[in-house]
Write a structure and sequence with these properties.
The complex is a heterodimer of chains A (273) and B (259). Chain A is an alpha/beta fold and 273 residues long. Chain A is 39% helix and 22% strand. In chain A, a hairpin with a 5-residue loop joins β1 and β2. With 259 residues, chain B is mainly alpha-helical. Chain B contains 10 helices and 2 strands.
Chain lengths: 273, 259
């Protein structure tokens, strides 16, 4: 499902203008990472996608729905939103009930809920933990419960707010796996992240925000190469990308595989001289 | 995030520069005089010639009057009515309301008591408006108030806005999961548990973390602690304090004087 943002401006009641004229279109099935320094407006922006915040000026369209005309509970059927801190949403006595909460709110039939919950639990590798109390799990697994509880809602758009913060490498890989699966299912994924490696490896499109405006927007390969502009919003390109640049590779590399390929090509080129 | 932690309004004024203890004594003195002075009009005069002018000197008059109109006057008005109707004193009946007699004496009595309450509450409001709570507490701890006591006061002031912000995030998170918080009352009652659970668990965890954090900085250590923030205590403060104490003693003495 498509997200259309038209000249969005947002001012907090305190008078802080957090978004200063943002226009963007995110196509159905796109995987978008939003980067930028703290206070750039990333969270403020995505909170407009499910109506938690309403534009001061401009509009946000989710498919054909204007977020001004629908309640958050209603928009929840189109936009799933995984909050940063799982402890701020987990309340059930076991993982299974927790994950059922969202789809039940959306009013699906019992069979559909069962199916969605089973799938979400399998995807997040929680199938053997359905009976466990979420608070008996480690913080990394609690994060997965939060992911599962939103994925089970089967929304065409899923938002992740800093999914990898405070997670170990194993769990970051799990989260990447979940996002890859959502991509294959044709879902739109929007992720706020400070983890630039995670961003480089998992997202095709990167949007960099700086003081409430879009600084850069385009394919990850192009954006991550623009070291000087990214520095304006305190984002460093991934180490491999920077190393590739230092080594004089023509193309911007994003992953180990690409780096090794470019390295091999440049060695081959210098040997054939 | 930008919540105010207390009533305190930051301004530059003579009152703000007073030592916190001076302001506490001023407040207590106003209250004690209002309650002990034998002269009928003392509380009324205190409001007119002390508290209201002080709020202007302290540059907090707008905030002071806002609180007064919203909270203090309604409460005092209610007290006045209750006492005027139910105080069985005097026999100069002014009017009857079913079985209730309103006498001149009960009216006088109610008027004075209501004003005393106004003095009490408005003096405290004035102190809270011009004194930063942590400044007050660090000054009092330096003078020997137990740290635990100061901690209870300060943490209460800080925890409330934090809990409020936390509750807001939890509500947002659950609404994003399709929780309906805007429809009928029954539905909303049903949606309480997804909100209260995380709030209570989260707050308990925070209390523990806070306890560990302050203990890591030697909270219960018996050694005398230094303070980064020096709170000035001028000789003028001492003069004001002793002057107030003498006024209170005078007022009590006059009250006890066999007349």
């Amino acid at each position: 499902m498509k997200i259309e943002i038209n000249n969005l401006r947002f001012t907090y009641p305190t008078g802080l203008e957090a978004l200063r004229g943002i226009s963007l279109t995110i196509e159905a099935g796109e995987q978008v990472a939003i980067v930028g320094q703290n206070g750039a407006g990333k969270t403020t922006l995505v909170r407009h996608f499910n109506g938690l915040l309403q534009p001061t000026v401009g509009s946000v369209l989710i498919g054909d729905w204007d977020t001004k005309k629908y309640s958050v509970a209603k928009l929840a059927s189109r936009v799933g939103y995984v909050f940063q801190n799982p402890d701020e949403q987990l309340f059930s006595k076991d993982v299974g009930t927790e994950v059922r909460f969202g789809p039940r709110n959306l009013g699906y039939s019992k069979e559909k809920i069962d199916e969605l919950v089973t799938r979400a639990l399998a995807l997040t590798e929680l199938s053997n933990k359905t009976e466990t109390n979420p608070y008996d799990l480690s913080p990394t697994w609690r994060k997965m419960v939060a992911l599962a509880s939103v994925i089970a809602m089967d929304t065409p758009i899923v938002i992740f707010d800093e999914p990898t913060t405070g997670q170990d490498a194993v769990n970051v890989a799990r989260i990447a796996h979940v996002i890859a699966k959502l991509r294959r299912e044709g879902k739109t994924v929007v992720t706020i992240t400070h983890d630039i490696d995670f961003c480089a490896e998992n997202f095709e499109r990167v949007i960099a925000l700086a003081s409430g405006q879009v600084l850069l927007d385009g394919p990850a390969r192009e954006i991550l190469g623009q070291e000087e502009i990214l520095a304006q919003t305190y984002v460093d390109p991934p180490q491999l990308t920077r190393l590739g640049k230092k080594l004089g590779f023509k193309e911007t590399v994003r992953s180990q595989e690409e780096f090794l390929n470019s390295l091999k090509n440049s060695i081959d080129a210098s040997q054939s001289k | 995030m930008h919540e105010r932690l207390s009533f305190y309004v930051k301004r530059n004024s003579v009152i703000h520069d007073l030592n916190p203890l001076t302001k506490v004594i001023l407040t207590l003195a106003l209250i004690l005089i209002a309650f002990t002075s034998p002269w009928y009009w003392t509380p009324h005069l205190l409001v007119l010639v002390a508290i209201i002018p002080l709020s202007f000197i302290g540059k907090v008059a707008p905030e002071f009057f806002r609180t007064a109109i919203r909270i203090i006057l309604p409460a005092a008005g209610f007290l006045f009515l209750m006492q005027a109707f139910f105080q069985p004193v005097g026999d100069t009946v002014i009017f009857k309301f079913y079985f209730l007699d309103v006498t001149q004496e009960s009216l006088m009595f109610a008027f004075r008591n209501a004003t005393r309450v106004i003095v009490m509450v408005s003096a405290f409001t004035f102190m809270l408006l011009t004194t930063h709570p942590s400044e007050l507490m660090s000054d009092l701890t330096r003078r020997g108030l137990p740290g635990q006591f100061a901690y209870v006061i300060i943490s209460t002031l800080q925890i409330l806005p934090q809990m409020q912000a936390k509750a807001q995030t939890i509500i947002s998170a659950q609404r994003s999961r399709g929780l309906d918080t805007e429809s009928s009352f029954l539905k909303r009652m049903g949606s309480l548990s997804p909100l209260i659970g995380p709030l209570v668990f989260g707050s308990l965890a925070e209390v523990e973390e806070r306890a560990i954090a302050i203990e890591a900085r030697g909270f219960t250590s018996k050694k005398v602690k230094t303070s980064l923030h020096e709170i000035p205590d001028h000789s003028s403060d001492k003069i004001i304090r002793w002057g107030l104490v003498i006024l209170v003693i005078l007022s009590i003495a006059l009250n006890l004087w066999p007349s």
